[in-house]
From TrEMBL:
SUPFAM superfamilies: 2Fe-2S ferredoxin-like (SSF54292), Ferredoxin reductase-like, C-terminal NADP-linked domain (SSF52343), Riboflavin synthase domain-like (SSF63380). The keyword Cell cycle does not apply. The lineage of its organism: Bacteria, Pseudomonadati, Pseudomonadota, Alphaproteobacteria, Sphingomonadales. Its cofactor is FMN. It comes from Sphingobium lactosutens DS20. Coiled coil: none annotated. PANTHER family: CARNITINE MONOOXYGENASE REDUCTASE SUBUNIT, NADH OXIDOREDUCTASE HCR. Residues 237-323 form the 2Fe-2S ferredoxin-type domain. It comes from the Bacteria. InterPro entries: 2Fe-2S_ferredoxin-like_sf, 2Fe-2S_ferredoxin-type, 2Fe2S_fd_BS, Beta-grasp_dom_sf, DmmA-like_N, FAD-bd_FR_type, FNR_nucleotide-bd, MRET. This is Ferredoxin. It holds the Pfam family DmmA-like_N. Keywords: 2Fe-2S, Flavoprotein, FMN, Iron, Iron-sulfur, Metal-binding, Oxidoreductase.
Length: 323
Protein backbone atom coordinates (compact mmCIF):
# COMPACT_ATOMS: atom_id res chain seq x y z
CA UNK A 1 0.00 0.00 0.00
CA UNK A 2 1.22 3.52 -0.80
CA UNK A 3 2.52 5.31 2.32
CA UNK A 4 0.32 8.29 3.18
CA UNK A 5 3.37 10.41 4.02
CA UNK A 6 6.42 11.29 1.94
CA UNK A 7 9.83 12.07 3.34
CA UNK A 8 10.37 15.71 2.53
CA UNK A 9 12.77 18.52 3.20
CA UNK A 10 12.48 22.29 3.42
CA UNK A 11 14.15 23.62 0.26
CA UNK A 12 13.34 27.31 0.68
CA UNK A 13 12.11 29.77 3.26
CA UNK A 14 11.35 33.48 3.10
CA UNK A 15 9.72 36.15 5.19
CA UNK A 16 6.39 37.43 3.81
CA UNK A 17 5.07 39.61 6.66
CA UNK A 18 5.85 40.13 10.35
CA UNK A 19 3.95 36.96 11.22
CA UNK A 20 3.90 34.95 8.00
CA UNK A 21 6.73 33.00 6.40
CA UNK A 22 6.74 30.98 3.22
CA UNK A 23 8.24 27.48 3.10
CA UNK A 24 9.05 25.43 0.01
CA UNK A 25 8.79 21.69 0.58
CA UNK A 26 10.67 19.31 -1.71
CA UNK A 27 10.86 15.52 -1.80
CA UNK A 28 13.79 14.16 0.22
CA UNK A 29 14.85 12.02 -2.76
CA UNK A 30 14.91 15.07 -5.04
CA UNK A 31 12.14 14.00 -7.44
CA UNK A 32 9.38 16.47 -8.35
CA UNK A 33 6.39 16.29 -6.00
CA UNK A 34 2.93 15.44 -7.39
CA UNK A 35 0.89 18.35 -8.73
CA UNK A 36 -1.42 19.93 -6.14
CA UNK A 37 -4.64 21.19 -7.75
CA UNK A 38 -6.15 24.50 -6.65
CA UNK A 39 -7.69 24.31 -3.17
CA UNK A 40 -5.52 21.35 -2.07
CA UNK A 41 -3.82 21.07 1.26
CA UNK A 42 -1.14 18.78 2.64
CA UNK A 43 -0.75 17.33 6.11
CA UNK A 44 2.67 18.01 7.51
CA UNK A 45 4.24 16.09 10.40
CA UNK A 46 7.15 17.76 12.08
CA UNK A 47 8.91 18.13 15.42
CA UNK A 48 11.31 15.22 15.94
CA UNK A 49 11.41 11.67 14.62
CA UNK A 50 7.87 10.90 15.79
CA UNK A 51 6.40 14.02 14.19
CA UNK A 52 5.07 15.58 17.40
CA UNK A 53 2.91 18.05 15.46
CA UNK A 54 0.51 17.46 12.59
CA UNK A 55 -0.87 20.47 10.75
CA UNK A 56 -2.65 21.13 7.46
CA UNK A 57 -1.41 23.74 5.01
CA UNK A 58 -2.90 24.80 1.69
CA UNK A 59 -0.59 24.59 -1.28
CA UNK A 60 -0.19 28.04 -2.83
CA UNK A 61 1.44 26.84 -6.04
CA UNK A 62 3.36 28.97 -8.53
CA UNK A 63 3.04 32.72 -8.07
CA UNK A 64 2.88 33.42 -11.80
CA UNK A 65 0.17 32.25 -14.22
CA UNK A 66 2.90 31.64 -16.82
CA UNK A 67 4.33 28.88 -14.68
CA UNK A 68 1.92 25.90 -14.72
CA UNK A 69 3.69 23.93 -12.00
CA UNK A 70 6.74 23.83 -9.76
CA UNK A 71 8.69 20.83 -8.40
CA UNK A 72 8.00 21.66 -4.74
CA UNK A 73 4.97 22.62 -2.63
CA UNK A 74 4.77 26.24 -1.52
CA UNK A 75 3.01 26.87 1.80
CA UNK A 76 2.71 29.94 4.03
CA UNK A 77 2.53 29.66 7.82
CA UNK A 78 1.26 32.36 10.15
CA UNK A 79 2.76 32.41 13.60
CA UNK A 80 -0.04 32.17 16.16
CA UNK A 81 1.07 33.32 19.60
CA UNK A 82 -0.73 30.57 21.44
CA UNK A 83 -0.40 27.74 18.92
CA UNK A 84 2.67 25.62 19.50
CA UNK A 85 2.76 24.09 16.01
CA UNK A 86 3.14 27.35 14.09
CA UNK A 87 5.66 28.68 16.64
CA UNK A 88 7.70 25.49 16.24
CA UNK A 89 7.74 25.91 12.46
CA UNK A 90 8.82 29.54 12.64
CA UNK A 91 11.49 28.87 15.26
CA UNK A 92 12.90 25.60 13.95
CA UNK A 93 12.28 24.84 10.28
CA UNK A 94 15.12 26.01 8.07
CA UNK A 95 16.39 24.95 4.67
CA UNK A 96 17.41 21.31 5.07
CA UNK A 97 14.94 20.50 7.90
CA UNK A 98 13.21 17.17 7.43
CA UNK A 99 9.43 16.82 7.60
CA UNK A 100 6.86 14.20 6.61
CA UNK A 101 4.15 15.39 4.25
CA UNK A 102 1.01 13.74 2.89
CA UNK A 103 0.06 13.75 -0.74
CA UNK A 104 -2.30 16.64 -1.57
CA UNK A 105 -5.90 16.30 -0.40
CA UNK A 106 -8.67 18.51 -1.72
CA UNK A 107 -11.91 19.31 0.09
CA UNK A 108 -12.13 22.84 -1.33
CA UNK A 109 -12.47 22.36 -5.07
CA UNK A 110 -13.35 24.87 -7.73
CA UNK A 111 -16.63 24.19 -9.51
CA UNK A 112 -16.70 23.84 -13.25
CA UNK A 113 -18.85 25.83 -15.64
CA UNK A 114 -20.21 28.52 -13.33
CA UNK A 115 -21.04 31.89 -14.92
CA UNK A 116 -18.88 33.65 -12.32
CA UNK A 117 -16.69 32.77 -9.32
CA UNK A 118 -16.17 34.98 -6.26
CA UNK A 119 -13.00 34.30 -4.24
CA UNK A 120 -12.95 35.72 -0.70
CA UNK A 121 -9.89 35.55 1.55
CA UNK A 122 -9.31 36.80 5.07
CA UNK A 123 -5.72 36.97 6.38
CA UNK A 124 -3.76 33.74 5.96
CA UNK A 125 -6.84 32.32 4.20
CA UNK A 126 -5.26 33.76 1.06
CA UNK A 127 -3.24 30.56 0.51
CA UNK A 128 -5.87 28.36 -1.20
CA UNK A 129 -7.58 31.42 -2.70
CA UNK A 130 -4.34 32.41 -4.48
CA UNK A 131 -4.14 28.97 -6.09
CA UNK A 132 -7.80 29.23 -7.14
CA UNK A 133 -7.28 32.64 -8.74
CA UNK A 134 -4.35 31.31 -10.76
CA UNK A 135 -6.36 28.26 -11.83
CA UNK A 136 -9.39 30.33 -12.91
CA UNK A 137 -7.12 32.63 -14.92
CA UNK A 138 -5.54 29.66 -16.64
CA UNK A 139 -9.00 28.26 -17.40
CA UNK A 140 -10.16 31.65 -18.75
CA UNK A 141 -13.14 31.69 -16.37
CA UNK A 142 -14.89 34.78 -15.03
CA UNK A 143 -14.04 35.64 -11.47
CA UNK A 144 -13.48 38.41 -8.97
CA UNK A 145 -11.44 38.28 -5.78
CA UNK A 146 -11.77 40.03 -2.43
CA UNK A 147 -8.84 39.90 0.00
CA UNK A 148 -9.21 41.41 3.48
CA UNK A 149 -6.50 41.92 6.08
CA UNK A 150 -5.55 44.33 8.82
CA UNK A 151 -3.35 46.38 6.49
CA UNK A 152 -1.33 45.78 3.36
CA UNK A 153 1.88 45.11 5.27
CA UNK A 154 0.18 42.19 7.03
CA UNK A 155 -1.30 40.68 3.86
CA UNK A 156 0.84 37.92 2.37
CA UNK A 157 1.05 37.78 -1.43
CA UNK A 158 -0.86 41.08 -1.86
CA UNK A 159 1.57 42.28 -4.57
CA UNK A 160 1.57 38.94 -6.38
CA UNK A 161 -2.22 38.66 -6.24
CA UNK A 162 -2.59 42.17 -7.59
CA UNK A 163 -0.25 41.33 -10.47
CA UNK A 164 -2.19 38.13 -11.10
CA UNK A 165 -5.74 39.48 -10.91
CA UNK A 166 -5.47 43.12 -11.99
CA UNK A 167 -8.81 44.89 -11.67
CA UNK A 168 -10.60 41.68 -10.71
CA UNK A 169 -9.12 42.12 -7.21
CA UNK A 170 -10.31 44.26 -4.31
CA UNK A 171 -7.87 44.59 -1.41
CA UNK A 172 -9.58 45.59 1.82
CA UNK A 173 -7.51 47.01 4.69
CA UNK A 174 -9.64 46.74 7.82
CA UNK A 175 -7.46 49.06 9.90
CA UNK A 176 -8.59 52.03 7.81
CA UNK A 177 -11.74 50.74 6.08
CA UNK A 178 -13.35 48.86 9.00
CA UNK A 179 -15.06 45.50 8.67
CA UNK A 180 -15.85 44.50 5.08
CA UNK A 181 -19.44 44.96 3.90
CA UNK A 182 -20.11 41.40 2.75
CA UNK A 183 -23.79 42.08 1.94
CA UNK A 184 -22.64 44.68 -0.54
CA UNK A 185 -20.01 42.35 -1.94
CA UNK A 186 -22.60 39.63 -2.62
CA UNK A 187 -25.12 42.11 -4.01
CA UNK A 188 -22.59 43.09 -6.68
CA UNK A 189 -22.17 39.53 -7.98
CA UNK A 190 -23.74 38.31 -11.22
CA UNK A 191 -26.60 35.79 -11.10
CA UNK A 192 -25.40 32.22 -10.44
CA UNK A 193 -22.08 33.20 -8.86
CA UNK A 194 -20.28 30.45 -6.93
CA UNK A 195 -18.42 31.82 -3.90
CA UNK A 196 -15.39 30.38 -2.09
CA UNK A 197 -14.20 31.78 1.22
CA UNK A 198 -11.21 30.98 3.38
CA UNK A 199 -10.35 32.91 6.51
CA UNK A 200 -11.22 33.31 10.18
CA UNK A 201 -14.46 31.61 11.31
CA UNK A 202 -16.13 34.98 12.00
CA UNK A 203 -15.61 36.04 8.39
CA UNK A 204 -16.94 32.77 7.03
CA UNK A 205 -19.97 32.94 9.31
CA UNK A 206 -20.62 36.53 8.21
CA UNK A 207 -20.46 35.63 4.50
CA UNK A 208 -22.69 32.58 4.96
CA UNK A 209 -25.20 34.73 6.89
CA UNK A 210 -25.11 37.45 4.23
CA UNK A 211 -25.72 34.84 1.51
CA UNK A 212 -28.67 33.43 3.47
CA UNK A 213 -30.17 36.92 3.80
CA UNK A 214 -29.93 37.30 0.04
CA UNK A 215 -31.60 33.91 -0.53
CA UNK A 216 -28.51 32.17 -1.93
CA UNK A 217 -28.57 28.38 -2.03
CA UNK A 218 -26.06 27.34 0.72
CA UNK A 219 -24.28 25.14 -1.85
CA UNK A 220 -23.19 28.32 -3.62
CA UNK A 221 -20.80 29.14 -0.74
CA UNK A 222 -17.83 26.86 -0.21
CA UNK A 223 -15.52 27.53 2.67
CA UNK A 224 -12.38 26.42 4.38
CA UNK A 225 -11.68 27.41 7.97
CA UNK A 226 -8.45 28.59 9.52
CA UNK A 227 -7.76 29.20 13.18
CA UNK A 228 -10.99 27.65 14.47
CA UNK A 229 -9.11 26.14 17.38
CA UNK A 230 -7.52 29.18 19.02
CA UNK A 231 -8.82 32.45 20.43
CA UNK A 232 -6.93 34.88 22.67
CA UNK A 233 -9.43 34.42 25.52
CA UNK A 234 -8.98 30.62 25.68
CA UNK A 235 -8.19 29.18 29.10
CA UNK A 236 -6.67 25.88 30.25
CA UNK A 237 -8.87 23.03 31.50
CA UNK A 238 -8.66 19.29 32.20
CA UNK A 239 -10.10 16.39 30.24
CA UNK A 240 -11.19 13.50 32.44
CA UNK A 241 -11.14 10.04 30.85
CA UNK A 242 -13.33 7.02 31.68
CA UNK A 243 -10.47 5.33 33.57
CA UNK A 244 -10.23 8.37 35.83
CA UNK A 245 -7.04 9.75 34.25
CA UNK A 246 -6.85 13.50 33.79
CA UNK A 247 -5.19 15.16 30.80
CA UNK A 248 -4.42 18.89 31.04
CA UNK A 249 -5.30 20.97 27.96
CA UNK A 250 -3.33 24.21 27.85
CA UNK A 251 -4.79 27.48 26.60
CA UNK A 252 -2.71 27.27 23.41
CA UNK A 253 -3.36 23.66 22.52
CA UNK A 254 -6.32 21.52 21.49
CA UNK A 255 -7.91 18.55 23.24
CA UNK A 256 -6.78 16.38 20.33
CA UNK A 257 -3.16 17.52 20.59
CA UNK A 258 -3.19 17.05 24.36
CA UNK A 259 -4.56 13.49 24.06
CA UNK A 260 -2.03 12.61 21.38
CA UNK A 261 0.81 14.05 23.43
CA UNK A 262 -0.33 11.80 26.29
CA UNK A 263 0.00 8.79 23.97
CA UNK A 264 -3.71 8.08 23.47
CA UNK A 265 -5.04 6.72 20.20
CA UNK A 266 -7.25 9.28 18.46
CA UNK A 267 -9.04 9.66 15.13
CA UNK A 268 -8.80 12.87 13.15
CA UNK A 269 -8.52 14.10 9.61
CA UNK A 270 -9.15 17.78 8.88
CA UNK A 271 -8.18 19.06 12.37
CA UNK A 272 -10.28 22.17 11.86
CA UNK A 273 -13.84 21.16 12.62
CA UNK A 274 -15.01 20.18 9.16
CA UNK A 275 -14.93 16.39 8.74
CA UNK A 276 -16.38 15.21 12.07
CA UNK A 277 -13.91 12.32 12.38
CA UNK A 278 -12.68 13.40 15.82
CA UNK A 279 -16.23 13.57 17.24
CA UNK A 280 -16.30 12.32 20.84
CA UNK A 281 -19.21 11.73 23.23
CA UNK A 282 -19.44 14.09 26.18
CA UNK A 283 -20.11 12.59 29.60
CA UNK A 284 -20.05 15.80 31.57
CA UNK A 285 -18.76 19.35 31.74
CA UNK A 286 -18.60 21.74 34.69
CA UNK A 287 -18.77 24.77 32.41
CA UNK A 288 -20.04 25.59 28.93
CA UNK A 289 -19.12 23.70 25.77
CA UNK A 290 -17.56 26.05 23.22
CA UNK A 291 -18.27 24.40 19.85
CA UNK A 292 -16.03 25.70 17.06
CA UNK A 293 -16.76 23.19 14.33
CA UNK A 294 -18.69 23.53 11.09
CA UNK A 295 -19.70 19.87 11.13
CA UNK A 296 -22.61 19.80 13.58
CA UNK A 297 -25.87 21.73 13.31
CA UNK A 298 -26.88 24.43 15.78
CA UNK A 299 -29.33 21.91 17.29
CA UNK A 300 -26.48 19.41 17.80
CA UNK A 301 -24.41 22.11 19.48
CA UNK A 302 -27.34 23.01 21.68
CA UNK A 303 -27.81 19.35 22.70
CA UNK A 304 -24.12 19.18 23.70
CA UNK A 305 -23.86 15.40 23.51
CA UNK A 306 -20.73 15.38 21.33
CA UNK A 307 -17.73 17.59 20.60
CA UNK A 308 -15.14 17.78 17.85
CA UNK A 309 -11.99 17.58 19.93
CA UNK A 310 -9.73 19.03 17.21
CA UNK A 311 -11.06 22.56 17.72
CA UNK A 312 -13.85 22.79 20.32
CA UNK A 313 -13.14 23.37 23.99
CA UNK A 314 -14.92 24.52 27.16
CA UNK A 315 -15.14 27.51 29.39
CA UNK A 316 -14.86 25.71 32.70
CA UNK A 317 -12.38 23.48 34.49
CA UNK A 318 -13.25 19.87 33.63
CA UNK A 319 -14.62 18.15 30.52
CA UNK A 320 -15.43 14.47 30.92
CA UNK A 321 -15.21 12.48 27.68
CA UNK A 322 -16.22 8.97 26.67
CA UNK A 323 -12.65 7.88 25.95
S1 LIG B 1 -10.64 16.18 12.70
FE1 LIG B 1 -12.14 16.89 11.33
S2 LIG B 1 -13.64 17.76 12.65
FE2 LIG B 1 -12.03 17.23 13.97
Amino acid sequence: MQDKYLDAVIVGRRHLTDRISEFLIGAANGVALPLAEAGSHVEMRFGGAQGRFLRHYSVVGPLSPDQPSEPFWRIAVQREDRARGSAFIHDNLIVGSQVRVSRPLNAFRLSRHRPHHLLVAGGIGITPIFAMARSLLTRHENFSAFYAGMDRAAMAYADELEALCGNRLTLHESRTAGLPDLDRLLAAQPQGTQAYVCGPPAMIDALVAAAARRGWDPARIRFEVFNAAHKPEDTAFDVKLKDGATIPVGAGTTILDALEAAGLETFADCRRGECGLCTTDVIGCDGVLDHRDHFFSDADHEAGRQVTICCSRITGRVLELDI
